[in-house]
Structures are given as C-alpha cells and as structure tokens.
C-alpha cells in the first residue's frame, strides 16, 4: 500500500467503503465515549486501542479528527496489532538481540515463540488476547496473565500479571499500565505502549531529550550520543526530517505531536519509570510512532557500563509496578 492510500484508508465512522469501516458495533470491540470523543478498544487483538477520535462541527460541516492512526476493518479481521492505533508492550519493550539473553545464571531463549522477527520484539502480550474486566461508558480495565509453558518453545519463563486501565477523561486519554511478578524468582521486566499517529508532510514532533541511541543495520543500539534529531526535537522536528527508528534518553516525559495545517496537536505525558522515548519515523513511509517505554532496545543484554542508562529493571517475587500515560488533544 502506498503512503497516500494508507492514509486514505483510515477508519471513519461514516466511511462509504465498508472495507475500511471499523464497525464500532462489532461485539469484539469495547467502545468508550466522553462527550464528542470516542475510543475503540480491541481486547482480542493484543489488548490494543483501535481508534481514538473526536467529532467536530455540525451537519454537513461535521468532521472526524483522529488523534491516533486508526485501524481498518481489514486490520481487525487479521488481528494485527501492528496495524492498530496503539498496543501494550509486556514484559519488555523493543528488541532483544537474537531473542536471547543471560539472567540469573541461565540463558533465556525466546526464539521460536511465534514472533516472525529475527530478534524478539515487544514481548508477547501484544500478540495474545486480553480479558475484559470492569467497565463503564468511559473506562475499561483489561487483564492479561502469563503462565509459562515449558513445552512451548521460546515461551517467557516467568509468571506475571499485567493490566491496563484505559479511560477517557473529557477528550483526554489515560492509560494506566501495571504488572506484578507472580514467579518465585526475580524477573527482568519492561513495559510501554506503542502509539501510531497520523503522519502528514508537515507533522511536527516536539520533545526535550538529552541524547540518542545510535543503531546499526539490525536496529540494535551501538552507543548513546549526540545527533541532529536531538536539537530538532526540542525545536519541533518535522516527521520527515530524518530516517528514525531510535531510542532517546533522558526525555522530560512530555512530547507533542502537532499538525499545524490542521491547527491541532496532541500532547503525551508519562509517569516515571517511562524514562525512555522511541521515535519511529522511517523515511518514505506513512508510519509515525512516538513511544513511551521503560527500557531501551536490547537492555537485557546491556553491559555493566550501560545498564543503568538502559532502563534495565528486575521485579522481585510479588513485586508490582504501575504508571500512567496521558494524551491530551488541543485544537487552536
């Protein structure tokens, strides 16, 4: 699909083409609403958010403003989280080199778990269904529990529970991520969310970051250092300015995605320990991700010198963690 047609295929609640209409009356979806704002959640597609939009204007002038890149009906039918608006990352973020790392005196081998990538990617919770818990018209709680299966090749060998509380507060979106180690031993851990944003030729991304993790051809980090994108992000970086799939360190946990020609913007804020930011803005592509995460790519394989800067984290038996992410729309 070309960049133009991909952008045109976005879900619209009154789309004439049924192939791109997400059908919010689908029983597998959870639809939340607050005023003129709607959030569509797809629990069975990795606990993903499928759409987040507001309706403005009246009558013939009414239009839909998508704050995240919406899924299509085809994406939902294919159960493809990578084509959703956003999906959760548990029990780690980004890639693990060759799907292997050493922990507590043993090798953890995640290869062959069904992930089609050479390196383990984004954990596994995004590729499995989540259970719907308590819900109201503007809020839903999703739960996921992983019990290791020693007969399943590449399975994550630690038991844990994860949850998402997804809610609309006015027109703002809040997602509270939480997890608890249910194993009898310590467990390496990371979490995050993977939001996609509408990308146009003048989309701007603004964030205060200290440095960028440079990466090789395999998109694995080589070193933390300076890059023109660091200054560009502080000033307001055009999404087309660089070819990026990189982690940024020591961001101030606030980033704004703006569409100046549409006179609107979306500001994302995060609690600690979401101390790392991923910007995925590949050249000649319609995708744009600005992701809050707790750990950098391949942090489980980080050496002693970089481990503290990578977000490497261990949850002790019974230990729990929880933190909020917020997205606030603004129209000029």
What's the Cα radius of gyration? Answer: 19 Å
Please count the beta strands (DSSP E, at least 2 residues each). 26
Number of helices: 4
Profile the largest sheet.
Answer: 9 strands, antiparallel
Calculate the terminal CA-CA distance, rounded to whole Å: 32 Å
Task: Give the overall form.
Answer: globular
Fraction in beta strands = 35-45%
Look at the structure and give the CATH class of the largest domain.
Mainly Beta
What is the number of domains? 2
In CATH, the architecture of the largest domain is Distorted Sandwich
Which stretches are low in confidence, meaning pLDDT under 50 for 5 or more residues running? 1-20
Provide the succession of SSEs. HEEEEHEEEEEEEEEEEEEEHEEEEEEHEE
> Which structural category do the helix and sheet elements fall into?
mainly beta
Spatial ordering of strands, largest sheet = 10-11-12-13-26-22-21-16-19
Percent of residues in helical segments? under 10%
Write down the overall mean pLDDT.
Answer: 91
CATH topology of the largest domain: Beta-galactosidase, Chain A, domain 5
Protein name: Aldose 1-epimerase
InterPro entries: Aldose_1/G6P_1-epimerase, Gal_mutarotase_sf_dom, GH-type_carb-bd
Organism: Paraburkholderia azotifigens
Pfam family, one: Aldose_epim
